[in-house]
């Protein structure tokens, strides 16, 4: 449902842009013909058919945007409820040795941070990933349709983008694992401090526990800082190469193949947006790979065997 709604929505969006480009080209051509004929009694260009088609496509696009948003929220809520209910049942029926060998911060992290990731971040990231991917594919398709010579340079650009995003995803995944590993001691220490607050005050160890908490917080903040910095590093120069190649091929086609000005503008507009689409596609792909680690960790707890309550009364 999610993929189908995204496909329909982006097909309509491309159709809206193409309709607008064709409308502009025909209007300019009609005005030029009237000026060349120097006819004062000739009828002006009729904008009515174009405006009707454009209005219908815009209304359809708004409806499909609403359907896509509802599909994302509905699928995310359904998955979250199922995982949380299964995890709660497993933890309640878990044997006592599970609680003795598993840190309390780890269990709290599964119910708090991981459930929050599945509830709020994964559906939004999935929607952004599908949207950015389809936008990138549609942009490259429009550029290739307007200027077929662009297909020659598309293959080396795709290979270059593949290797860069592969390197970026590995670094981003490792940094996210470092962020998760430094968050667990922080939560465990905070939970243990709250539970043993009376004992800590009795022995006057407040400063020691406060310093330890600050050290754990600094370690987690350093990992988060590098993760945020890595997310800002992406292949900007590939987008610049796409814009350059699309501009050169569009101008060449316009000069030698009499390509309409509206289609040239459409191709250049999509070329300028390819860089942003590529950045978001790679970033969302890395974020999705990272966030699915929450599902993996919860799935690990779902394999916990329940306590055997069958026995003598």
Automatic annotation (TrEMBL):
Where does the ABC transmembrane type-1 domain lie?
1-289
Q: Which GO terms of the molecular function aspect are on file?
A: ABC-type transporter activity; ATP binding
Pfam families tied to this protein: ABC_membrane
Origin superkingdom: Eukaryota
Keyword flag ATP-binding? yes
Which keywords are on file for this protein? Answer: ATP-binding, Membrane, Nucleotide-binding, Transmembrane, Transmembrane helix, Transport
One GO CC term, this protein: membrane
- Which SUPFAM superfamilies does the protein's record reference? ABC transporter transmembrane region
User: Which InterPro entries is this protein grouped with?
Assistant: ABC1_TM_dom, ABC1_TM_sf, ABC_transporter_C-like
Q: Which PROSITE patterns match?
A: ABC_TM1F (PS50929)
Q: Where are the membrane-spanning stretches?
A: 53-72, 139-165, 237-256, 263-282
> Coiled-coil regions in this chain?
none
Annotated protein name in UniProt:
ATP-binding cassette sub-family C member 8
